[in-house]
C-alpha cells in the first residue's frame, strides 16, 4: 500500500477511535464536564496529562529545534520536564486537597477576591489561546503533507473532531480520548526512533545509540561535530547562547510548565491527594519516554539530512535525479523546503548560511518552476559567495526546522507504514493538547466568569450549557488562528510560558506556602509579573528592540523568570504593609496542607 | 481535621524538609550539571557523551523521574507516620 493510503487509514482509524470513546464517555453534569467526576485512576490520569502536555511543539518541533541548535536545546528538554518536579512537590497535592475545578477558583477563594479571580481568568484565557493556535496549525501541516488537502481544510477537519469530543464529553471525554492519543503518539514517536537508531548505530534504544561509536570508529556526537564544523555550522555539542540566558530560559520554562492551567487542572481529576502525587510521577515517566528519545532523533536526523543532501562524495545531490515522490520534492511542494541553485551546477548543496533573503533565510516561494522543475523563490540570493576557509560550498537549501521529525522516516527510507504512523502521531499530539486547552478556556468562561462572578444563581444545567457554548466559540476562534496564523507562533508560545511563570505559578505557590499572603499582595504581584513580562516581550518582538538592549543579556523567552522574581518581591512587600488575611482563610491554608479529607472535587 | 495543631506543625515541618532536600538535588542536577558547570563537565567522556551534554539532554530527565517517585514514597510514609493518610 502507498504512504497516502496508509496515512488515510491510520489517521482515519484513530479518529474513529476518538469518536467512539467520546460517545462512550459523555458528560452529564458540570462535575463530569470539568473534572471527569474526580474519579480518574492515577495511571490513566498520568497518560492523559502526558498527552495533554505533549503538543505539536513537543512532537513535531522539539527534535527539529535541537537538531539545529545542538547543546543549547537542553534548556527545552530540562525546562519542559523539570517543571513536573515543581508541580509534584509544590502545587499538585495541595491544589487537589483544596478541591476546586480551576486555577481561578483557587486564586479567587484563597485570596477572597473577585478581582484576583478575574486577573487569573484573563491569564488563563490568554495563555490557553496563544497555545492553542499553534496546535491547529500543526494539524493543518500534517493534513496538507500526507492527505494532500489544503491546510485550511485540514484545520477545519481537526476542529470538527475536537468539537465532537470536547463539547460532548468535557473533561471525561477528553481524559479517556487522551489516554488513547497518548498510546498513538508514543508509538508514533518511538517506533521510528528505534528504527533510526538501529539503522545509524546498531543500538535499538536512541538513548544509548546517541552515545554509540560508528563504523568509522568515531562516536555519533563527534561525527556530528565534525560534519557541522566542516560545513561552517557551529559545533553540535558546544553551547552558543550565554549561560545566564540559558539559565533564565530554563527557569521560565520550568515554572511556566508548573503554572500552565491546562496541566494544573488535570490534578483535580484524581480521587485523593496521594493520587495527585502519584499521577505526576506517572505523567513524567510517560513524558520522559518521548523526551529522552528526542536528542537521539535530533542527532540521527541531522546526520542523515547532511549526508543525504551532500551525498557520499560531499559534492551534492543532482536535483534531476530525485524521483517524483522523493521526500525533498514533497516537502518542497508543502513549502517547507526550498532549493536555490546558486552555483548553477544542478546539484543540491547544504552548508551554513542563508540561501534566501527572507527573515531567517526563509524563501518567498512563487508558483513558477525553474530549469529542473524546482520551485522558484522571488527572494533567492544571487551569486554563490561563501567563506572558503570555513565551508566547501555556498548553502543552497532552506530547511524548515519543523519538518525534521516528520521527514526523518522518509529521509532514512523507513517502511511506508512508519511514515503513516508518524503522521497519525502528530495529529494525536496536536488534537489532545488542543482539546485540553479548549476545555480550560470554556471552564474559565462558564464557571469562573458566569457562575462565580456575573450570575451565581444559574443552575448546574445552565452552567453546563454555557460551558458547551464557550467551547464552541473557543474552537471557532482557535480555528481562525489556525487558518490565519499570527506570523510569530514561536514568540507567542514563549509569551504563554512567560505569563504562566510570572503570574500563575508564584501566586499559587505563595497561596500555599505563605499563610500571611493577602488579597492586596496577590493582586499587586500578579499585575507586576504579568505587565513586566508582557511589556518586555512586546518591546523586543514587536517594538523594534534589538538584542544588545537585553536586560542582563536575557532574551524575551527567559524574561518570565525576572517577572516571577519581581512578583515574589512585590507580593511579599505589599502583603507585609497591609492587614493579614481573615482567620477563616488562614484555617483553609492550614487545612490544605494536610492530605486527609480531600473528598471529592466540589463546586461550592 | 483529626490531627492536633502541634502534630500538624510537625508534619508540615518535615514535609518542607523533604521538599527542600529534593529540590536541592533537582537544582544541582539540572542547573548545576546541565547549565552552570556544563563546560567543565563536557571535558569528561561518559558512554560516548560529553558529561555536561548528557546531563542537559538525558541525565537530568532520568533524575527528575526518580525524584518525583522518591517524593511519592517519602510522603506516603510521612502521611502514615502522622496518621493523615486517606
Structure explained in plain terms:
Chain A: InterPro entries: Na/Glc_symporter_sf, Na/solute_symporter, Na/solute_symporter_CS, Na/solute_symporter_VC_2705, Sodium:Solute_Symporter. Chain A: One of its GO terms (cellular component) is plasma membrane. The complex is a heterodimer of chains A (604) and B (86). With 604 residues, chain A is an all-alpha fold. Helices cover 66% and strands 3% of the residues of chain A. Chain A has a two-stranded antiparallel sheet with strand order 1-3. A two-stranded antiparallel ribbon of chain A has the order 2-6. A two-stranded antiparallel sheet of chain A has the order 4-5. In chain A, helix 8 packs across helix 18 (460-483). The relative contact order of chain A is 0.18. By secondary structure, chain B is mainly alpha-helical. Chain B has one domain (5-81). Chain B has three helices and two strands; from the N terminus they run ααββα. The mean pLDDT of chain B is 91. Chains A and B meet through helix 5, helix 11 and helix 13 of A and helix 1, strand 2 and helix 3 of B.
Amino acid at each position: 500500500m502507498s504512504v497516502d493510503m496508509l496515512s488515510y487509514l491510520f489517521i482515519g482509524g484513530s479518529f474513529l477511535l476518538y469518536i467512539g470513546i467520546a460517545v462512550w464517555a459523555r458528560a452529564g453534569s458540570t462535575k463530569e464536564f470539568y473534572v471527569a467526576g474526580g474519579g480518574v485512576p492515577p495511571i490513566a490520569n498520568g497518560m492523559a496529562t502526558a498527552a495533554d502536555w505533549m503538543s505539536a511543539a513537543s512532537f513535531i518541533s522539539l527534535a527539529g529545534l535541537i537538531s539545529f541548535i545542538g547543546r543549547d536545546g537542553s534548556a527545552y528538554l530540562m525546562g519542559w520536564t523539570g517543571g513536573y518536579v515543581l508541580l509534584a512537590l509544590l502545587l499538585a497535592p495541595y491544589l487537589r486537597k483544596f478541591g476546586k475545578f480551576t486555577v481561578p477558583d483557587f486564586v479567587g477563594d484563597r485570596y477572597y477576591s473577585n478581582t484576583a479571580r478575574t486577573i487569573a481568568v484573563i491569564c488563563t484565557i490568554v495563555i490557553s489561546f496563544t497555545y492553542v493556535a499553534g496546535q491547529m496549525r500543526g494539524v493543518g501541516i500534517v493534513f496538507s503533507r500526507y492527505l494532500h488537502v489544503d491546510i485550511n481544510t485540514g484545520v477545519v477537519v481537526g476542529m470538527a473532531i475536537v468539537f465532537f469530543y470536547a463539547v460532548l464529553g468535557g473533561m471525561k471525554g477528553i481524559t479517556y480520548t487522551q489516554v488513547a492519543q497518548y498510546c498513538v503518539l508514543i508509538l508514533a514517536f518511538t517506533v521510528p526512533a528505534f528504527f533510526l537508531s538501529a539503522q545509524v548505530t546498531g543500538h535499538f534504544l536512541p538513548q544509548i545509540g546517541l552515545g554509540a561509536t560508528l563504523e568509522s570508529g568515531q562516536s555519533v556526537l563527534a561525527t556530528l561535530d565534525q560534519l557541522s564544523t566542516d560545513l561552517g555550522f557551529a559545533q553540535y555539542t558546544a553551547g552558543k547562547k550565554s549561560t545566564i540566558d540559558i539559565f533564565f530560559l530554563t527557569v521560565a520554562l520550568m515554572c511556566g510548565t508548573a503554572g500552565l492551567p491546562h496541566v494544573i487542572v488535570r490534578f483535580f481529576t484524581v480521587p485523593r491527594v496521594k493520587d495527585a502525587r502519584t499521577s505526576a510521577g506517572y505523567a513524567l515517566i510517560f513524558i520522559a519516554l518521548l523526551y529522552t528519545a528526542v536528542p537521539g532523533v535530533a542527532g540521527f536526523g541531522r546526520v542523515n539530512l547532511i549526508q543525504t543532501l551532500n551525498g557520499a562524495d560531499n559534492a551534492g545531490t543532482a536535483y534531476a535525479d530525485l524521483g517524483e515522490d522523493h521526500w525533498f520534492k514533497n516537502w518542497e511542494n508543502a513549502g517547507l523546503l526550498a532549493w536555490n541553485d546558486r552555483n548553477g551546477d544542478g546539484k543540491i548543496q547544504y552548508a551554513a548560511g542563508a540561501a534566501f533573503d527572507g527573515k531567517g533565510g526563509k524563501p518567498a516561494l512563487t508558483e513558477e518552476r525553474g530549469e529542473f522543475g524546482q520551485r522558484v523563490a522571488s527572494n533567492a540570493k544571487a551569486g554563490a559567495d561563501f567563506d572558503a576557509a570555513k565551508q566547501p560550498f555556498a548553502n543552497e537549501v532552506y530547511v524548515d526546522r519543523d519538518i525534521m521529525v516528520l521527514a526523518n522516516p522518509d529521509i532514512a527510507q523507513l517502511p511506508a507504514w512508519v511514515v503513516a504512523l508518524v503522521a497519525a502521531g502528530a495529529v494525536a499530539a496536536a488534537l489532545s493538547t488542543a482539546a485540553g486547552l479548549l476545555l480550560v478556556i470554556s471552564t474559565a468562561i462558564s464557571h469562573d466568569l458566569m457562575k462565580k462572578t456575573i450570575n451565581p444563581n444559574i443552575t448546574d444545567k445552565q452552567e453546563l450549557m454555557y460551558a458547551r457554548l464557550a467551547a464552541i466559540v473557543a474552537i471557532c476562534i482557535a480555528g481562525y488562528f489556525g487558518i490565519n496564523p499570527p506570523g510569530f507562533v514561536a514568540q507567542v508560545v514563549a509569551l504563554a510560558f512567560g505569563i504562566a511563570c510570572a503570574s500563575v505559578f508564584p501566586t499559587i505557590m505563595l497561596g500555599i506556602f505563605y499563610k500571611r499572603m493577602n488579597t492586596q499582595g496577590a493582586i499587586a504581584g500578579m499585575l507586576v509579573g504579568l505587565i513586566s513580562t508582557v511589556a518586555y516581550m512586546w518591546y523586543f518582538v514587536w517594538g523594534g528592540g534589538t538584542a544588545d538592549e537585553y536586560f542582563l543579556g536575557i532574551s524575551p523567552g527567559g524574561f518570565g523568570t525576572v517577572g516571577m522574581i519581581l512578583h515574589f518581591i512585590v507580593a511579599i512587600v505589599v502583603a507585609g504593609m497591609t492587614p493579614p488575611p481573615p482567620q477563616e482563610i488562614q484555617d483553609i491554608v492550614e487545612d490544605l496542607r494536610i492530605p486527609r479529607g480531600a473528598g471529592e472535587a466540589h463546586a461550592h | 481535621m483529626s490531627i492536633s495543631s502541634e502534630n500538624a506543625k510537625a508534619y508540615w515541618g518535615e514535609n518542607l524538609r523533604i521538599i527542600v532536600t529534593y529540590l536541592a538535588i533537582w537544582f544541582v542536577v539540572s542547573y548545576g550539571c546541565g547549565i552552570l558547570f556544563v563546560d567543565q563537565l563536557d571535558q569528561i567522556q561518559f558512554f560516548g557523551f560529553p558529561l555536561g551534554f548528557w546531563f542537559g539532554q538525558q541525565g537530568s530527565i532520568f533524575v527528575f523521574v526518580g525524584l518525583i517517585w522518591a517524593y511519592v514514597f517519602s510522603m506516603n510514609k510521612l502521611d502514615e507516620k502522622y496518621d493523615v493518610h486517606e
